[in-house]
Amino acid sequence: MLKKDRISELPDSLICDILTHLSTKKVVSTSVLSTRWRNIWLWVPNVELNSKTFPNVNAFVKFGDRFFDPIRVSCIQKLELTLNPKARTLDDDESYFTSWIEAAIKRKIHHLDVRLSKVSLRKKPLRLYSCDTLVYLRLYQVVLADAEFVSLPCLNTMYLDKNWYPREATLEKLISSCPVLKNLKIVASDLDTKVFRVHSRSLKTISIKRGRIVLPQYNNVPGVVIDAPLLRRLSIDDRKSESFVVKNLESHAKLDIYLSFGLGEMTISSFTFRLICRYSELEPLPQFCYMSDLCVAVHPTKLKQLETFLESCPNLKSLFLVQLGSYNYNPEVPSEEMNQEGLPSVPQCLLSSLQLVRFKVPITGVAGEMKLVNYFLKNSTVLKKLILRLDSRSAKDEILKELFEIPRGSTECELVIL
User: Which residue range or ranges hold the F-box domain (predicted)?
Assistant: First the structure.
């Protein structure tokens, strides 16, 4: 006796909810179960379409045209669409793709992820600039058309990965026209030299990444301008921009700054610190009152610059120092800063909040490194732990003797040597 098929007795809406937890390939395979299941997959609100999973472009287009039939009125919650360069018709016509996007917008799409693999859609621009229901948008290697009007009233998260913009104003308008946008991530293409202007009264998190420009004629990149007064977290990983301007930043925002400017990988480079200190000679640096942890690359001879920045972090609790290496200077010729007997003041954080200092790169015992160690041990009155790692080539006995002779500003400080 055959068992009764209870699943088939469920209403279509409930079956579609169940099928949303399966891959599109498995969802479509249910169409062969019975006549009852033949067309149910067409009503599933989530779909993943990748042209690589089809035997040829005609099969891909035929499948997409059937799913995005404009006559159908069911809603689409999530669409992940990947189009590789081989998914081209003979006449290089990509109108089928734009019609799918337009159909998804009409069917009140919430989540849209488009990956085009350098396919140009300039012939017929997408209607991505106007969608009343879109909440999440990711675009990868899309050539965006210029837009005079943008309306994305519900967009909360936007991820722009290696796209091309006809003008600087295109990106600026796209971002500023999203009134509830909270999360923004931008990854620049290798050939993009435009200024990234981010103006938003709603953004809470921003992540910007720009790698090295591969062609020499694109060496000069103007930079980034950010004006987001509600920003809570800003992450910058940039290898090429010449400048960053951040306006109206709240004091409690968290900053993850990774600027190399050709000097290699680091959290905040020594060169960046020199620029900060030059700026501080013109006007006071902003106060980062809520900053508790800081990782910074600092040259052993630039103690004064480090002190200048620490004065803007009155509540800093943990400091991680990444030195650029003593090989960058001659230890027999101390710099002017290293010759100074004392500094005019001690940053507030050393007197009231700094509890941990860690040197993340092994020290060799040269004068500049020992001066940094001496500075924190002597002036940090609430320091609980200072962690060092000695270089295997260093004179360990001499370094240890010098370390334990340094006077401590904090009676609770533990010196840990790895």
Answer: 4-40
